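Appendix B. Worked example

We walk through a single record from start to finish. Start with the input: the chain for DMT family transporter, Nonomuraea guangzhouensis, length 309.
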Amino acid sequence: MVSTATSDPVRTRPYLLLGTTMLLWGSGFGSSKVIVDYLPHPVVAALRFGGGAVALLIALRLFRRGGDARRASWRDRARAAGAGVLGVFVYNVLFFWGLSLAPAIDGSTIVPVMSPVLTTSFLLLAGKEKASPARVAGLAVGAAGALIFFAGSGGAAGGGQGRLAGDLLFLLSACCWAAFTLAGRRVLAGIEPLEATTYATLSGAVLLAVYSVPSAVEVAWQSVPAHVWLNVVFVALGPTAVANLLYYRGIHAVGPASASIMMFLVPVVGTTCSALFLGESFGTVQAVGAAVLLVGAVLAVTQGRLGTR
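Next comes the structure step. The output line below is what the pipeline stores for this chain.
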């Protein structure tokens, strides 16, 4: 698969876009954690995706082509907005709730590693992908790694029941993202990626805004530090508006299974940022579980052919 991408110039650009997406997403875990330390998690989610929706609406106004806009029916737009309910609203309610309980380093491992595993599992169960021995073995190894990781959550540095609960919320958010990824090609059947991403983000942002109202009225806005607002701007523009657009373009070009492989870059970026900038770490058992989970996930998604010709 890798050799195909590098030898075919038509397919190289989508993988470069997906790689940029993963770098932005990986850095977004730590930035989001900084904001959650100062603001309630429903408010953080609303700020992030409200800002992302505004940026995407401006981009849609500036860059979409007239022909593309005419081809998209109201049904296409409604389908994109519906995908945003799951992939933006529900995902982020669970994700930011988890981030308020567990370190960002946990989320940067669980979400991007479990999402492609869950995506691959569904494709196998639905008969859309072949259940090769390598894939079955990878899923089994990945499941074992996940069990080890969650078992170690309570005993990790800064652990306890709160961290375990946060990790389970991260797992649920990964389920939402897997479903969102699988819906990508159907959503994009009659609509351009920029327009689809905009409507999905906008619908999710509206619901997040309504959900955040009770928490927002209790915030002492004048006491929020400047560096928190800088992080809000970054996560709204980079890991949200730009990254989600590039991800949908990648799905449109190479499909959900291939796009999900790129998510293995996110734990590397996310754990590095969390360790360097937040001083977070895994416990020994969690580290072992994360390594086993990552090995199993790579094996399951790539069928053991990563880097082969």
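Two observations about the output. The chain is about 80% helix and 0% strand. Residues 226-254 form the longest helix (29 residues).
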